[in-house]
Amino acid sequence: MLPTELCCVMGYLSFITTKSKQFQAIRRSPLSILITTKSATDLEKPRSNSIAMAMAIKLSLLLLVFSCSLIPTFSLFEDQVGFMDWHQRYIGKVKDAVFHTQKAGRKRVVVSTEENVIASLDLRRGEIFWRHVLGANDVVDKIDIALGKYVITLSSEGSILRAWNLPDGQMVWESSLSGSKSSKAFLTIPANLKLDLDSPIFVYGGTCLYAISSIDGEILWKKDFIPEGIDVHQLILSEGSNVIHATGVSDSSEFNTYEIDVKNGAVLNHAKTSFPRGIFGEILQISSDKSVALDSSQSTLVLISIINKQIHLQETHVSNLIHGVSSNTIILPSKLSGIFSLSTDTFIAFIKLTDEGKLHVMEKFDKKVVVSDALPLSENEQAFALVEHGDSNIHLSVRLVHDMSSNHLKETVKMDHERGFVEKIFINNYVRTDRSHGFRALIVMEDHSLLLLQQGEIVWSRDDGLASIIDVTTSELPVEKIGVSVAKVEDSLFEWLKGHMLKLKGTLMLATPDEITAIQKIRLQSSQKSKMTRDHNGFRRLLIVLTKSGKLFALHSGDGHIVWSTLLQSLRQSPQCPNPTALKLHPWQIPHHHALDHNPSVLVVGRCGLSLSSPSTLTIIDAYTGNAVRNVGPTHSTVQVLSLPFSDSEEQQLHLLIDDEKRAHLYPRSREAVEIFEKESQNVYWYSVEADVGILKGYGVKNRCDGDEFCFEARNLWSVVFPSESEKIISTVTRKGNEVVHTQAKVIADEDVMYKYISKNILFVATVSPKASGPIGSTTPDESVLVVHLVDTVTGRILHRMTHLGSQGPVHAVLSENWVVYHYFNLRAHRYEMSVIEIYDQSRAENKDVLKLIVGKHNLTTPVSSYSRPEVSTKSQSYFFTHSVKAISVTSTAKGITSKHLLIGTIGDQVLALDKRFVDPRRSLNPTQAEKEEGLLPLTDTLPIIPQSYVTHAFKVEGLRGIETIPAKLESTTLVFTYGVDLFFTRLAPSRTYDSLTEDFNYALLLLTIVALVVAIFVTWVLSERKDLQEKWR
Amino acid sequence: MDKGKGVMGSRKWAIEFTDNSSTPSSRDIPDPPGFTRASHDQDDSTLSRQKKDAESNWKSQKAWEVAQAPFKNLLMMGFMMWMAGSTVHLFSIGITFSALWQPLSALQGVGKVFEPYKDAKVDLNAPKLLFIALNLGGMLLGVWKLNTLGLLPTHASDWVSSLPPAHEVEYSGGGIALH
Question: Which domain of life is it from (chain B) (predicted)?
Answer without folding.
Answer: Eukaryota
